[in-house]
Amino acid sequence: MMAPLSLLRMRFLMGLQYRAAAAAGIMTQLFFGFIFIMVYVAFYTHSGAAQPMTLKEVVAYIWLQQMFLAFIMIWSSDGELFQMIIGGNIAYELCRPWRLYPIWYAKLLAARLSSAALRCLPIAFVVFFLPEPYRFSPPASPAALLLFAASLFAGLLLVVAISMFIYISVFWTMSPVGSLLVVSVAGDFLSGKIVPVPLMPGWMQTIAHLLPFRWTVDFPFRVYTGHIGVQEALAGLAAQMIWLAVLVAAGMWLMRRALRRVVVQGG
Amino acid sequence: MSLITLQGIGKKFKVAKRSAGFAEAVKALFVREHAIVEALRDISFTVREGEIVGYIGPNGAGKSTTIKIMSGVLVPDAGTCSIMGYTPWADRVRYVRHIGVVFGQRSQLWWDVPVIDSFELLRDIYAIPPNVYQRNLDTLTEMLDLRDIVRTPVRQLSLGQRMRCEIAASLLHDPAILFLDEPTIGLDAASKIAVRNFIKTINRERGVTVILTTHDMNDIEALADRILMIGRGMLLYDGTLSELRSRYGTRRTITVEYKGAASPIDVTGVECLSWSSGRAVYTFNADQIVIADLINRLAEGGELADVEIESPPVDELILQLYKEHRV
Predict the structure, then answer these.
(1) In terms of DSSP bridges, do strands B251-258 and B304-310 run parallel, antiparallel, or are they unpaired?
(2) Does residue A247 sit in helix, strand or coil?
(3) Range 44-103 of A in CB contact (< 8 A) with B
(4) Do the domain assignments include residue A265?
(5) CA distances from residue B174 to A2, A20, B55, B91, B230 in whole angstroms, order as listed
(6) Whose CA is closest to B255, among B277, B275, B282?
(7) From the CB of residue A90, how many other CB atoms can be counted at a distance below 10 Å?
(8) Are B149 and B161 in contact (CB under 8 A)?
(9) What does the alpha-carbon distance between residue B275 and residue B285 come to, in Å, rounded to a whole number?
(10) Structural domain count of chain A
(11) What distance in Å separates the CA atoms of residue A253 and residue A161, rounded to the nearest whole number?
């Protein structure tokens, strides 16, 4: 499989070219991290009751979010693919000896990897040396770090699999706006990106646990802080794999249907 | 044994409609409106190996749709198609290795990077062996005169330069069949001639079967041994250009210039289009009038300076065909 690797390389190099964008991104992420943590600090100081997550865990959770934003933003999308479907250049894409689902999956994965590669380490470097309570704490244990890496990567694969549905939907809707909106609002919230899942009300936690989104944000980040133990983390990794298999299978099936009825726009 | 066989191909399009605006975009997720357009109706033809076939018809006749079905992009609603033993849409991934496609109105080259990067990506996509790639790149660079432009970003190329690169890109993997959808659209005369010569050469030297659509009848005259004409989704004519000429092209125009004063002639079957003291234009049917006789009659009217006889250009033949079939 030369083609996906070659595409990945090209995408990675393209991403590396945009240094100014990466620098601006780092500043933005630090800014948002501070704001979120300030809100939680206020919340933890003034609420009497014991919370399901400690402030330290929440702070680590938020910084991880900012570091790996490119891995968890479902709505971060590749305009080129949308343009291909809407503008009709899909005709050329279909003249190539490859299957569309794997190749688009590889493209999207490459875009996220290249985007995160530039941001994650500089942010980590800064936040490790911040004063308390803003300091980013190290992982709970070496095992937690290892399981975190595995679950984060599995989460990334899940995010790409979920975002594929947005692209596939455009074959029907001819506009990404609607599906992007629905998936990203639902996804951002139910993944624990806005509020960590343990801090949600009970009924909302039930919904979050029924859907795949929480396995992309909530699960890997809480594995890092040790809020989710080793045993539970291993079971969670299995659950991630099952979700991944289901979503990829469903995506491939839908893509096949989409291509059977594909219309090349613009003559 | 024919290389390409289409049998009763039909294709309908559901054309979705949506008004502008954000609310409409969200609505489009749930409710859509559409109209049905019948793009192709019962299209059947065969193409032998090594042929150059011109596929012509007015805008919206279904030319591009046919090309897209034959190149595995679209799935027809009816009929069968067998190309080199493959069904294009069903065996797409294995089949497309053997074909090259150029959609004249689109670009397969990556916009921001030099052309050579796109070529190398295509080399990886098609897994072209390095020696084959190098050989093809060298010959294509030579034949299409690309030496000075392969290192330029695509966005800075002129249309003619880009089209030459597009054609090169579609031939890097040694396809047996080349589909060209309006390869000369928007090109100047020099680029058109370069593209035509190239198509002829690869057809002759590499035996590549070529199917091209075009609106430029000069393309057809220069290239196609055979033309297929389509209108309103139906195949209207399948044959050679000379056959078409003998069926519809018997009308001739004769322009006469006299040295001095002359008088008009009156011959039945010859119609005078314009007449001034030094110059006359007549039209007649070559089946009914013997040209030598006509010239003799014209010479009787005055001393001839120049005589010019013209057959109708191909465009007019095509227009007549359209008219006959009410396209």
Answers:
(1) antiparallel
(2) helix
(3) 88-92, 94-99
(4) no
(5) 18, 42, 23, 19, 29
(6) B282
(7) 22
(8) yes
(9) 19
(10) 1
(11) 13
Q: Which residues contact B246 (CB under 8 A, 6 or more apart)?
A: none
B280-314 b/e (C-beta count within 10 Å ≥ 16 → b):
bbbebeeeebeeeebeeebeebbeeeeeeeeebeb
Residues of chain A contacting B125 with CB distance shorter than 8 Å: 2-3, 6, 96-98
Q: What is the pLDDT of residues B175-212, one digit of tens each?
A: 999 999 998 888 888 888 988 999 999 999 999 999 99
> Tell me, what's the ipTM?
0.76
Residue A267 located in a structural domain: no
Say if A205 is an interface residue toward chain B (CB within 8 Å): no
B76 touches chain A (CB under 8 A): no
3-state secondary structure of B129: coil
Domains of chain B: 2-108+170-245 (3.40.50.300), 250-311 (3.30.70.250)
Q: What's the one-letter identity of residue B315?
A: D
Q: Is A266 within a domain?
A: no
The span from the CA of B56 to the CA of B73, in Å, is 20
Q: What is the dihedral of CA A242, A245, A247, A253, to 10 degrees?
A: -150
B287 and A CB contact within 8 Å: no
**Per-residue pLDDT at A260:** 85
Contact call for residues B81 and B9 (beta carbons, < 8 A): yes
